[in-house]
Amino acid sequence: MTFDQDQIVFSPLDIDLTRSPLYGQIGEPTFVLGAFNPGFTRLPNGNLLMMVRVAEALSNPKTEHEIFAIRWAADRGFVRDGYDLSLVDVTDPRKFRLRGHSSKVMALTSLSWLLPVELDPSGGIIVAVHYTKAIAPMAEYQEYGVEDARISRVGDTWYMTTCSVSAQRHSTTLYTSADGLNYSLKGVIMDHQNKDMLIFEGKVDDKFFALTRPLGDLYFAYPPDSSFEAGPSINLSSSPDALHWKPSDRPLIRPRRGSTSVMKVGGGTAPILTDRGWLLLYHGVQPGTIVGTYRTFYAYLDKNDPSVVLSVDDSDPVLESRPELTLPIKDLSYLTDVVFTTGLVEDGDHFIVASGEDDLACRITRIPKARFGL
Predict the structure, then answer these.
(1) How many separate domains does the chain show?
(2) Mapping DSSP to helix (H, G, I), strand (E, B) and coil, where does residue 244 land?
(3) Phi/psi at 141 (nearest 5 deg)?
(4) Where in the sequence is the domain holding 17, given as residue range(s)?
(5) On the CB side of 370, how many CA atoms lie within 13 Å of its CA?
(6) CATH code for the domain in which residue 204 is found
(7) CA 235 – CA 118 distance, rounded (Å)
(8) What dihedral angle (degrees, nearest 10) is formed by the CA atoms of 209, 173, 168, 35?
(9) Distance CA 70, CA 29 (A)
(10) By the 8 A CB rule, do 353 and 365 touch?
């Protein structure tokens, strides 16, 4: 499908590392591995805001005998930790596995922080990069970074969920804002390894609802004749206050056998209410590469009972990775075949969609509402 706007609007080349929260603290040079997966919302002034995940990595991550990870320590700021190079697996460029532990233990090749980038109302022009409002680790449960913001506006408050990474837990944390630009940390709201949490942009029966995705290394088999495949899936939770969450007893959207999303699915955009119900964009992953091929699909949930799935379109992707978009920065690329959609804003008879492209840059796409049957 041809879109009237589909472009990279922000990339590692647009970042001034002298204004990074890490600047001058590690004693070693760093570079931007990726500027991607932006939380997305419209500000009161009409402009758009991307809350960009900046993955900052060491320029020289290893010596002859050691490989290093960046960590934030409450008493020292940002530091380097060294690990015996002979005891790690570095197959995945985003992380390395530490051998010799009874559990599966990983370390990251970068540390992520969040950078607010303001765009014009159409999403095509950068208006301001708000370094003074950057969000960096500030709690022990964020020692390895703050990742993948998702922003929802409910009433007069903006709710931003993030993944906070540490040795203690891999959790979902909440920030809130009264203006969409300045955020304050409220703490952990979903515990160990719960990713892609998205709060609905509106309440149902005076309750908050959210998409969640609990992760684990163990999944139990569906019956041989089931249409579903065991693995990471999109679940639903509700809350009276956006802080305390009750998981739904019903499953929501699951990997389906025979589809290209058989590896896993996960939430993409905060559900918004339309004439057809709650619309959400999500990612489905097909195995075949180191991380798999990520595509964007969409689904509708019942407006009065979001635990009821009205429709799922997992056959015709809304978005796929487009190598030509990142061709000017191809020398920075380390992944392919990944589009990770993270935000959806209405704009007349179109939606403006924000995505991370190949874990490298921020992509903005303008899509007619008719694409979703509206």
Answers:
(1) 1
(2) coil
(3) -75, 5
(4) 5-372
(5) 3
(6) 2.115.10.20
(7) 31
(8) 120
(9) 12
(10) yes
Q: Are 270 and 199 in contact (CB under 8 A)?
A: yes
Three-state DSSP class for residue 331: helix
User: Could you say which DSSP state residue 181 is in?
Assistant: S
Q: Would you list the DSSP string of 262-294?
A: -SEEEE-S--EEETTEEEEEEEEEESSSSS-EE
Strand 293-301 vs strand 277-286: parallel, antiparallel, or unpaired?
antiparallel
The torsion defined by the Cα of 193, 269, 325 and 6, in degrees rounded to 10, comes to 180
Q: What is the pLDDT along the chain (374 residues), one digit of tens a residue?
A: 668 799 999 999 999 999 999 999 999 999 999 999 999 999 999 999 999 999 999 999 888 999 999 999 999 999 999 999 888 887 777 788 888 888 888 888 899 999 999 999 999 999 999 999 999 999 999 999 999 999 999 999 999 999 999 999 999 999 999 999 999 999 999 987 888 999 999 999 999 999 999 888 889 999 999 999 999 999 999 999 999 999 999 999 999 999 999 999 999 999 999 999 999 999 999 988 778 999 999 999 999 999 999 999 899 999 999 999 999 999 999 999 999 999 999 999 999 999 999 999 999 999 999 999 99
Closest C-alpha to 216, from 198, 196, 197, 195: 195
3-state class of 169 per DSSP?
Answer: coil
Sequential DSSP letters for 93-162: TTEEEESS-SS-EEEESEEEEEEEEEE-TTSSSEEEE-GGG-B---SGGGTTBEEEEEEEEETTEEEEEE
75 DSSP β-pair partners: none
Residues contacting 199, CB < 8 A, separation 6+: 150, 152, 154, 159, 161, 208, 209, 210, 242, 270
Q: Taking the complete model, does pTM exceed 0.85, yes or no?
A: yes
- Spatial distance between the Cα atoms of 112 and 166, rounded to a whole number of angstroms: 12
- The whole-angstrom separation of Cα 351 and Cα 367 is 5
